[in-house]
Amino acid sequence: MVGAGAAGLFCAGVAGQRGLKVLVLDHSAKVAEKVRISGGGRANFTNRDIDVRQPHKHFVGANPHFCRSALSRYTAADFIDLVQKHGIPFHEKHKGQLFCDRSAGDLIDMLLAECDAGGVDRRQPCGVQAVRLSADGGYELDTDQGPVQTAKLVIATGGLSIPAIGATDFGFRIARQFGLRTVEPRPGLVPLTFDGAAWAPYADLAGLALPVLIETGDKKNRIVFAEDLLFTHRGLSGPAVLQISSYWQAGTPIRINLAPEVDLPAALTEAKQRSRKLLANELAQWVPARLADAWVAQDPDWQRPVMECSDKALARLAERLARWELVPTGTEGYKKAEVTLGGVDTRDLSQQSMESKQPGLYFIGEVVDVTGWLGGYNFQWAWASAHACAMAL
Ligand code: FDA
């Protein structure tokens, strides 16, 4: 096994407990660093709301149905049972998301205890320089700690996000070396950035958060999320933007309804009939005051008492707030991305076992072209793909 992260450790523990001899190699000195920093340090380790009959609802990839088999054979309930068996306290937050009460360290201890129970051997830090086929059809690895021979090789080296804690393209390189196809990787669950000059009117809003509806795609492929938006110095973040970023295609717009809970045209017409207040002050009932101020500053027709605003000006304001369309210039990249979209092409993998078309070579977790939504879905994929693989080794 190469990679002592979420998928690698879990697969190693299950395989070891099935009686297999397992060696885990990781080039990093620390174990499962991404698990440690996940979920703000509390690891959103799964989600109660996964509809395995409709995996495309929560997973992105060239074939979103690929993950169905593994997810239905090892479910969120199975992982919750394991967490409970280890006495780890946890709680449910928003939308079925489960987090550790204390810290993600509890989850890492659990994964290591499961490895111990399976007699798993682990070498860290231990880089892998080369992998080749051996004469008997197994694999030979050149590592920092000498050569390793194995009949079966599992790659669990994750994606490219957060290079500072050891992310590499190792898995993609091995896939290509053995003639497997890969889907071009790109950052997912990542803040979006905007051109400096175009962003100037909003730069002062950094730190502001509000609930929105956000969408991207054309009529056929439209995807919408109802989540919180966060303004940053360089652009937009928050759960709404992280979710939409996994669907956003470079050069296309995103559209945001900044006041989804109110019928703005009706509310503004009503306000015009009764209020002497400035339009910005009326608007501040429905959106944060800082946003209302920044918004009306964009048009002199809006900088007056609401009863003096023309119907046309009010209609324009309502339309722009409910359908703010903007084209991101890019993303904050792998430095900030929670996941990597793309990866080893699922057409070259078995959905039953995660074995690739190259016999004896398996890929599990984020290195595969299966990416979950924000909310514990990526860890559930790591557990489920790892389990499917461990049962088939
Ligand atoms: P993972 O990245 O966990 O492990 C890969 C391992 O391979 C690492 O230990 C690495 O050192 C090792 N490795 C890499 N290259 C190697 C090489 N060349 N040689 C040897 N070893 C190598 N998901 C979720 O469901 N809930 C959440 O709360 C969060 N939160 C979150 C926050 C942040 C900041 C990030 C960056 C990500 C998340 N995620 C998340 C995503 C989640 O962490 C991720 O999808 C899983 O950790 C993927 O598990 P893997 O085991 O596939 O890779």
TrEMBL record:
Keywords: FAD, Flavoprotein
SUPFAM superfamilies: FAD/NAD(P)-binding domain, HI0933 insert domain-like
Gene3D superfamilies on file: FAD/NAD(P)-binding domain, HI0933 insert domain-like, Translation factors
Domain of life: Bacteria
Cofactor: FAD
Domain RsdA/BaiN/AoA(So)-like Rossmann fold-like as annotated: residue spans: 2-391
Annotated ranges, domain RsdA/BaiN/AoA(So)-like insert: 186-339
Record carries keyword Flavoprotein: yes
Pfam families according to UniProt: HI0933_like (PF03486), HI0933_like_1st (PF22780)
Keyword flag Flavoprotein: yes
Stored NCBIfam families: aminoacetone oxidase family FAD-binding enzyme
Name recorded for this polypeptide: Membrane protein
Organism: Hydrogenophaga electricum
Lineage: Bacteria, Pseudomonadati, Pseudomonadota, Betaproteobacteria, Burkholderiales
